[in-house]
Amino acid sequence: MPKLSYLGALSKALNDELARDPSVCVFGEDVRVGVANITKGLVEQFGPQRIVDMPLSEQAFTSFATGAALVGQRPVIEFQIPSLLFLVFEQIANQAHKFSLMTGGQAKVPVTYLVPGSGSRVGWAGQHSDQPYGLFAHVGLKTVVPSTPSDAYGLLVSAIRDDDPVVVLTPAASSTDREDVDPAELGPVPLGVGRVVRPGSDITVVAVGHLVQEAVAVADELASEVSVEVFDPRTVYPFDWAGLAASVGRTGRLVVIDDTNRFCGFAAEIVSTAAEELTLTAPPRRVTRPDGTVLPFALELDRAAQPHRDQLMDAVRGVCGLARKDP
Amino acid sequence: MSDAMSEQYSTRERLYRTMRLIRRFEEFCIKLVRSGEIAGGIHPYIGQEAIAAGVCAALRPDDYITSTHRGHGHVLAKGADPAGMMAELTGRVTGLNKGRGGSMHAADVSLGILGANGIVGAGAPIAAGAAWAATRAGEDRIAVSFFGDGAVSQGVVLESFNLAALWQLPVLFVCENNGYASTLTVDNAVAGTIVGRAAAFGIPAARIDGTDAEAVMAATREYADRARSGGGPALLECAAYRFDAHHTWEHKSFVRYRTREEVAEGRSRDPLLVQAELIGSETCERIDREVEEVLESARQFALESPKPDPADALDHLYATGLRPRAGVTAHA
Ligand SMILES: Cc1ncc(C[n+]2csc(CCOP(=O)(O)OP(=O)(O)O)c2C)c(N)n1
């Protein structure tokens, strides 16, 4: 079976949607040569009218996409680095996202904000290593973080077809992943529907993006002691509460691993809602970046600030009442 | 009267009627603010009516506009229904935006009105994007972005100048220079000149009298024709004076930033009177009566319309009809 790479999946999704729907277009920096390896070859196929190299004017071109979308286009913006979303928070959170409600449903803004390479990229330090999905989820934007190549394909396709603005953050740590899939079996993955990646009966671990693989590795490692279910929400917002409720209904225990800051973070939301509304047989825990983290440069510090497999292991053991393994 | 004359006469009449409608609409609204029927207040456009009227008279119904926090004039001049607009301002379900937008977000997308906008300068890139999309679709529509003198210091506006000029987009930037951004004078805010900022991007620009609706219309027509036929963007700086407070809320903060003399001087060139002189008192009176009737029925329509059901507070949040979670229910 052919190996589908994570970046290849994103590229194929763009290609397929550009071919399927003439209103789809791509905006971004260096998209014609395809510096991020996702838009390579698209300009030869679809022309410079649809694959548009933008000047370094993120704020203008983000709302430019809103204007184009309001009158019938379906732009996909590729952002070079995740922290650019801080620069265009006004244009996404305050403009594009609010148009539907503020106009009483007259306007739709089908723009996709694609951020390949979100989260830590080794050696890129403070301003290039953010993972801002919690911010967009808080505001209420549809926000997806695919964890596998086939999800990357399917969620990007759904984001492009969705009539609302959708933020798609693909973790840098996933970009070299590969998966055995038959391209004919690729299809859209609905927004808002999570997936049990690995079934288990003692505890549910919610993991997002590249951390899904870490969670599966921890589950495998602990298999002789405890049965861990790994739940990948795939869409951070809207979150699949029903899917989580079903999982926690089976396990009664919960740990969330989330590569964003702890305070007011995504994991905090999942844990507190579960505490309010689900039946838990043990206090839940979360594994996150520390409060208010800015990712430091030196490799040891960068690693120390990101949630780690060992911390997840401890959290799972703690919640399940197992003794901590001696280091 | 020759046909040409009668056509000119009707245009004159039309400009006066639009300005009168805007002026009286806002006077009605100010009363509704004072009586509490309009929550939060409005940014009155009084004194600047000739700009909206003149610009929109030169546009086609299918052209696009983006507007500002001071947007009533633009939205009405582009053809929005005054009754729907008043219902919107009073928060009724029959409002243009079903009571979800209010004064600062009034929109009628079917008329190309892509929304008033509460963020200074935010409409410029949206208009540029709409203009790009129109060109891409092979249409000859143009987009107009209205903004104030305060907005020319916003980076996003200058970035939009660059994109529009780079790609020769059919977008017309209309800067309404009323001398103030809230209380800050333009002299204390703008280095160089407003038209100079356009010139830096190779965008043709003119500074005109924004109290003369016919001059505004003529200048707009020239730039609009040029844009429509592929000539690219232009900037029109329209000088005018804001007669009233920045916002109806202003009197509560007791700010003083304009002298009585200055306000009197500014008010002495009233664009409505300028236009009235051109059409004679009889015609004015006829139009005035008609406008009063329109507004009285708008007021009635608005105040008699139902208020929204609180249970519907999150309707229209998403174009797809998604509703936020009410609570957690497990899959069966
Ligand atoms: C980006 C931004 N900054 C500040 C404000 C608050 N504010 C609203 S209107 C205004 C003044 C705008 O002045 P100008 O653009 O000249 O338009 P005018 O009010 O004179 O019509 C300010 C500062 C805002 N809404 N948006």
TrEMBL record, chain A:
<dbReference type="InterPro" id="IPR033248">
    <property type="entry name" value="Transketolase_C"/>
</dbReference>
<dbReference type="InterPro" id="IPR029061">
    <property type="entry name" value="THDP-binding"/>
</dbReference>
<keyword id="KW-0560">Oxidoreductase</keyword>
<dbReference type="GO" id="GO:0000287">
    <property type="term" value="F:magnesium ion binding"/>
</dbReference>
<protein>
    <submittedName>
        <fullName>Acetoin dehydrogenase E1 component beta-subunit</fullName>
    </submittedName>
</protein>
<dbReference type="InterPro" id="IPR009014">
    <property type="entry name" value="Transketo_C/PFOR_II"/>
</dbReference>
<dbReference type="InterPro" id="IPR005475">
    <property type="entry name" value="Transketolase-like_Pyr-bd"/>
</dbReference>
<dbReference type="Pfam" id="PF02779">
    <property type="entry name" value="Transket_pyr"/>
</dbReference>
<dbReference type="GO" id="GO:0016491">
    <property type="term" value="F:oxidoreductase activity"/>
</dbReference>
<keyword id="KW-0786">Thiamine pyrophosphate</keyword>
<feature type="domain" description="Transketolase-like pyrimidine-binding">
    <location>
        <begin position="4"/>
        <end position="176"/>
    </location>
</feature>
<dbReference type="Pfam" id="PF02780">
    <property type="entry name" value="Transketolase_C"/>
</dbReference>
Automatic annotation (TrEMBL), chain B:
<protein>
    <submittedName>
        <fullName>Acetoin dehydrogenase E1 component alpha-subunit</fullName>
    </submittedName>
</protein>
<dbReference type="InterPro" id="IPR050642">
    <property type="entry name" value="PDH_E1_Alpha_Subunit"/>
</dbReference>
<dbReference type="GO" id="GO:0006086">
    <property type="term" value="P:pyruvate decarboxylation to acetyl-CoA"/>
</dbReference>
<feature type="domain" description="Dehydrogenase E1 component">
    <location>
        <begin position="18"/>
        <end position="310"/>
    </location>
</feature>
<dbReference type="InterPro" id="IPR029061">
    <property type="entry name" value="THDP-binding"/>
</dbReference>
<dbReference type="Pfam" id="PF00676">
    <property type="entry name" value="E1_dh"/>
</dbReference>
<dbReference type="InterPro" id="IPR001017">
    <property type="entry name" value="DH_E1"/>
</dbReference>
<keyword id="KW-0560">Oxidoreductase</keyword>
<dbReference type="GO" id="GO:0004739">
    <property type="term" value="F:pyruvate dehydrogenase (acetyl-transferring) activity"/>
</dbReference>
<keyword id="KW-0786">Thiamine pyrophosphate</keyword>
<dbReference type="GO" id="GO:0000287">
    <property type="term" value="F:magnesium ion binding"/>
</dbReference>
